[in-house]
Amino acid sequence: MSLLVVGLSHRSAPVSVLERAALTEDAKAKLLQDTLAAEPAAEAVVLGTCNRIELYADVDKFHAGVAELSTLLSVHSGVGLDELTPYLYVHYEDRAVHHLFSVACGLDSMVVGEGQILGQIKDALGFAQELHTTGRSLNDLFQQTLRVGKRAHSETGIDKAGQSLVTFGLDRLTGGAGELAGKRALVVGAGSMSSLAAATLVRAGVAELVVANRTLERAAHLAASLGGRAVPFAEVAAELPAADVVVSCTGATGLVLDRDAVAAALRDRPAGAPVLGMLDLAMPRDIDGAVHELAGVRLVDIEDLAAAAADAPMAADVDAVRRIVADEVAAFGAAQRAQRITPTVVALRTMAADVVSSELARLDGRLPGLDGKQRAEISQTVRRVVDKLLHAPTVRVKQLAGEPGGAGYADALRELFDLDPQAVAAVSHVGRPDAGVGHDLGMNDANRGRG
C-alpha cells in the first residue's frame, strides 16, 4: 500500500474556505467514484467533518496521485484549484498513517481530545464500503485506526484534555452547563452532531427540548428518546421566539436561518426574555453570520470556536497519546513492510515445491523398481531438506523486511532465486499485501507538516 492523503482542515485553512469546500453526501459519493476512476488510485475514503475535508487513497504514483486528488477535491468542492492549493496539505505512506492515527486520537481536532471524530471515521469507512471504493488496504488501515483511537481514549486521560465540539460550543455560548438548567432548547437537525447536542442539553437540565429536521420521522425518533417533541422543518422559524438556546447542525447547502428570520423571532419574544443563544455547528453554516449584529442574541459558530480552541490549554496526557501514536505507526509500518515480502516468499516456496516434484518424477522414471514405501521415504526426505534450507532465510528475510528500509529484501530475493515476476504478481493479486516506507511531502514548504 502507498497511502496518500490530500486535505485541508481548520489548521491549514480559514473557516471561510472550509465552509465553501464542504461536501454534501452526493458530492462525497461522486468524489470517491471519480477517484477510483482516476489512474493512480485503487481505493479511496473521504473524511468530511465540520472542520476538515480529507481524501485518502491507495495510489501507485505519488506525484500523479497528488495532482489528481487535488484536482478532484477542487472539482467536487467547487473551489478553484489555484485558490484551494495554498491550503492543502499532503501526507504520504508512514506520514499519512501517522496523520490519520493522530486525527483518530483527537490530537488534530479543533477541541483536542474530543472523541466524536472516531464515529466520523467509522462513518467515513462505512460510506466508502457501501460504494465499494475500499479494498484490503484501506479497510485494514481504517480498522486499525479505530483501534488506535479507542486505545488512546482508554489508556490515557486525553478525554480530560478536551470536550466534544458540542460541549465546547455550549460552554462558549452559555458560560457553563449550569446556565442551561430550566431553559427551552431547539435543536435543528437529527444527525450525529445534533443528536449529541440534544443529549447534552437534556443532561444539562433544559426544561423543554424541541427537535426539527427535514425528515420528521428522524426528528420524532430523536425527540422521543430524550423526552422532547418534534416539529416539521418548516416550523423552525415559528419555534424561535419560544427558544432560549438554539443548536443547528444540518447538511444544508444554504442558510437555514437568515438575519431577517432571527430578527423577527426577537421581536416576538416575550418582554424580559433572556438573550437568545445560538450555536451553529454546521459546515457550511446554517445561521447567517449577520445575526452577530442583532441585539438580544448571542451567536457562536465554527469560526468563533476555532479562534477559542487555538488558545485552549493542552493536557499532559497529550504527550502519552503522541507516544501511543508513534508506537502504533511503527508497528503498522513494520507489519506492512513484512507483509510486502510475503508474495515473494510464497513464490519461492512454490518454485521449490515444483522443483522437488519434478525431480521426484524423474527419479520414478530412473528407478521404477522402488516400492511405495521407499518412494514415500525419499519424497519426505527431499521435501524435509528443502524446507530446512528455506526456513531460516525466509523467516529472517521477513524480519528484515519489517525494518525501515527493508523493502529491498523482496527485490533481492527475487533476483537471487530468479523468480518469475508474474508468479509473484499473481500471489500479490490474491493476497493484496501492502507496503510503505513513509515520508511527508507538502504542497509547498509553507504547508510542510501542517495538518
Mean pLDDT: 85
Which parts are unreliable, with pLDDT below 50 for 5 consecutive residues or more?
430-451
Number of helices: 19
Let me know the number of strands: 10
In percent, how helical is the residue content? 40-55%
Characterize the largest beta sheet: strand count, sense, and whether it forms a barrel.
6 strands, parallel
End-to-end Cα distance, whole Å, is: 21 Å
Strand content: 5-15%
Radius of gyration: 28 Å
Shape summary: elongated
* SSE series: EHHEEHHEHHHHHEHEHEHEHEEHHHHHH
Going across the major beta sheet, what is the strand order? 7-6-5-8-9-10
Q: Structural class given helices, strands, pairing?
A: alpha/beta
Describe the structure.
The chain has 451 residues and is α/β, with parallel strands linked by helices. The chain contains 19 helices and ten strands. Helix 16 (342-366) packs across helix 19. It is elongated and about 110 Å long. Keywords: NADP, Oxidoreductase, Porphyrin biosynthesis. The record marks 99 as: Important for activity. InterPro entries: 4pyrrol_synth_GluRdtase, 4pyrrol_synth_GluRdtase_dimer, 4pyrrol_synth_GluRdtase_N, GluRdtase_CS, GluRdtase_dimer_dom_sf, GluRdtase_N_sf, NAD(P)-bd_dom_sf, Shikm_DH/Glu-tRNA_Rdtase.
